[in-house]
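Exam revision sheet. Question 4 asks you to relate a sequence to its structure. Input first:
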Amino acid sequence: MKTLLRGLGVALALIAVLATAGWFLLQRPDIPYATLEARYGYADSQYVDLPGGVRAHYRDLGPREAPAIVLVHGFSASTHAWDAWTKALSGNYRVVVLDLPGHGLTRAPAGYAAGRDGFGAVVDGVTGKLGLARFTLGGNSMGGGVAWAYTLDHPDKVERLVLVDAAGWPMTKAGGASIFAILRNPLGRRLLKDIDSRPLVAQGLRAAYLDPKLVTPALVDRYVDLARAPGHRDILLGLQTGARRLATAADLSRIHVPTLVMVGQDDRLIPAADGEKFHKAIPGATLILYPGVGHVPMEQIPDRSAADLKAWLEAHPVKQPSNPG
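Answer key, structure tokens:
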């Protein structure tokens, strides 16, 4: 018996040593912004300093005299999510895409904790610096939540609203990707902060894109690398805690601009029924459901979703240019 216990003790000690060694091997340091900008920046990338120490990364494409469209990405994503749409739209529209704090190439000071509700200030700051008095605002997922909230807070600035698998309704059940279940757990957030999250990120992306062929090593690398920008992991993990603004039918009924709701019917992260709720709550909204499509229609079916958006924009023209002069 003593020999058995001694052997068990040695085995447990060995497991502890291996686990500790594995922990240190899995830890990943920050990647400097200069490295990330060289790797993931665009030839036309621009940056603007905003109040609160935020240095926002954005792209400003298309004719300056054309109506403007501002697009906001989802959780852990970046301006890259809109690449297909910017290419399709920028011939006829001024298209602005931006990275929120904690995402992409936007820098935020240590301790930055504006949270989801504070992202509207970044949208306001970038559009204000560009002189956009009125514009069409679109967002995917978390960015869709930013978009409808900004429209409620700034009804004088938003002339059309586009919600793509938008977040905001109270959750009735956990999302379909393991990484989100881990992020909702305090211990899970602590563990994810310093380890290689690549397997979980890949699983989350497969849940979002549905088509595994779209989840390339390069896509996973980009998500993982940009999350390792200095300060990004603290912000990303912090977004999973605290109160957040939730959609209500009463609030959304105050939106009186043309609204397009685009929904992947097989979205595993946000139920398609939530998109139907946005459609029902916003007066006069248009709903497009995409069977067989997941959380990111602008990436999974870029040509079809961009064509649908262009047709809707043409059917709901603005009265005057968003950026006269």
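Marking note for examiners. The longest helix spans residues 2-26.
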